């Protein structure tokens, strides 16, 4: 599952590598590969200034979480003999790299199971040793999300595999002018089935997201395992498909901006970046609950745990830092930040300051058995015919 950054603001890291500190041979380093746009540059600068000793920070933004996951895989592949010779050893993203080139990497919660199963990452053992001082400030829900067994499944007796630093949700974004002429604006998933918006909706090209929102409409869970037991599910999907103009996980906002579609289902990381620029657009988090995603720090396998990476995770969890990350990257924080309406422009504030009742009804897309995944994919394929 991919969430791309769309029309990034100037407050976020540029694609080029961001360096703080001189590059002396004996100088301590913290190397981080992160999702582009997920950490403001000034936060890295503040962290550098807060350190008591001279260190070098190397933060390399990467365009997509999928690319970061691929990088984790590349680091664990056995090197080819040809890769150890000549100019090829200088290629930064070459196949067969012996050692991970980052102390921490951004990963989305959806990818966590695969990363654990494939032994691409290692647990954050310092949590058990209480070296992450801000861990206790996390809501239990976030602790549960990253506490997993060796198969990558949730397990209260498992180990801690990630440190969430921001989160968002799936939401409905719509053309305010078009829908006001129809006499209504969306409030919940059931509004996608209304008259007047046939062939005017775009949905994410993701089985878990689309089937999940239909399950939510029916009062069920996004993580339902046996779809055959859900009465009317196929019928609901078929009816919804008649409302849909197209499915896309990358290009659902452009047609909405141009007026070719009137509603779209999308990720907040995309949607909230464009609301301020296009006043005809508005967004809503469905009242019956939605899907939640989280970006987190993970430690590649084979990397020695260092105090600098611990300090960085703790720094991201400090309330003042968490507030900056949330406000400047237009996301929510797993730490209580008490963001005021004056800190964030409308219409973003109401979407970021999540309604606790809606949050409690929302769900992470948790790992499902392979047979269940095939059910979702098969039903989704039939839906789009």
Automatic annotation (TrEMBL):
Keywords: Coiled coil, Periplasm, Signal, Transport. Residues 223-250 form a coiled coil. It comes from Nostoc cf. commune SO-36. Gene3D superfamilies: Periplasmic binding protein-like II. The keyword Ligase does not apply. The keyword Transport applies. InterPro entries: Sperm_putr-bd (IPR001188). PANTHER family: SPERMIDINE/PUTRESCINE-BINDING PERIPLASMIC PROTEIN, SPERMIDINE_PUTRESCINE-BINDING PERIPLASMIC PROTEIN. It is found in: Periplasm. PROSITE patterns: PROKAR_LIPOPROTEIN. This is Polyamine ABC transporter substrate-binding protein.
